[in-house]
Amino acid sequence: MIAWRWLGLGLLAAGALCISACRTTTPLIAMHSAAPPGAFFHLTPLRPVAELLPIALAANPPREPGPFRPTALTELAVLDPTIKLDIRYATNRNFLSTPIYSQARAFLQRPAAEALVRVQRALALEGYGLLVHDAYRPWYVTKIFWDATAPENHKFVADPEHGSRHNRGCAVDLTLYDLKTGDVVPMPSLYDEMSERAYPHYEGGSEVLRRHRDLLRRYMEAEGFAVYEYEWWHFDYQDWQSYAIGNMRFEDVLLP
To answer: How far apart are CA 244 and CA 251, in angstroms?
Structure first.
């Protein structure tokens, strides 16, 4: 479990907290507050990403019996440009503080992508839009995440022996933005934060933050998505079992 510790007498007086996970050094905001703009969760990987990358690329995804539907990855920015992208793994603003993707793009299997567009249109009536952090994720990236993360936090990353629903093109990490201002809507935790604040049933924080989180969940569930039990931002599409694990890099994805 995540352990909380005081950072020192000066910070103790200010009520600041630090999350300790895999030698994490990211300072976090008070439990009732929203994160400051630009904040992101990060940790020190068990091994450098530069060492893990060639190992992951040389490995093979698990074999599955099938049968599976044909892959029909669809680019979200093409399907609906009003869905904003903030692909953290194409930057150093992610939990490994290292770019993992070579391109800032987001793909989902066609039925999941079309369902997400319906969520976007419904949320617009409430004054909100969707901001996507990640969608289809090649299997080798899942292996990097697993190997970089300490075992006590493995519930926040998928086991490569089974593959991720991201690998199947049927999972999406996302949040809300305000249509009027374009600002990201505050939530109870940072994206990819490995703490109980990330749980979709977390009862701490302010009522406003929880209301934002629950609004996102309500609209996503209405279109066939289910939230992951440890991450309010992660949603799996209902037909994820119908698609095989994918390992294509973004530049190799063949669009319909």
So the answer is: 19
For residue 33, the one-letter residue type is S
| Domains in the chain, CATH or no CATH each | 3-63+71-252 (3.30.1380.10)
* Predicted confidence (pLDDT) per residue in 161-198, tens digit: 999 999 999 999 999 999 999 999 999 999 999 999 99
**Short-list 23, 13, 19, CA closest to 40:** 19
Backbone angles phi, psi at 192, to 5 degrees: 70, 10
Q: For the chain, what's the residue count? A: 256
Kind of pairing, strands 171-178 and 231-237? antiparallel
pLDDT in tens, 111-167: 999 999 999 999 999 999 999 999 999 999 999 999 999 999 999 999 999 999 999
- Would residue 231 show up in a list of annotated catalytic residues for this protein? yes
* Residue 166 falls in which region: left (phi positive, over 0), alpha (psi -120 to 50) or beta: alpha
The gap from C-alpha 31 to its chain's centroid, in whole angstroms, comes to 21
pLDDT value for 69: 96
* Backbone phi and psi for residue 11, each to the nearest 5 degrees, phi listed first: -70, -30
Looking up tokens 């996503």 gives: 220
DSSP class of 40: -
Q: Which of 152, 193, 231, 251 is catalytic?
A: 231
Single-letter code of the amino acid located at 242? S
Instruction: Please list, in sequence order, all residues whose beta carbon lies within 8 angstroms of the beta carbon of residue 159, skipping any fewer than 6 positions away.
Output: 146
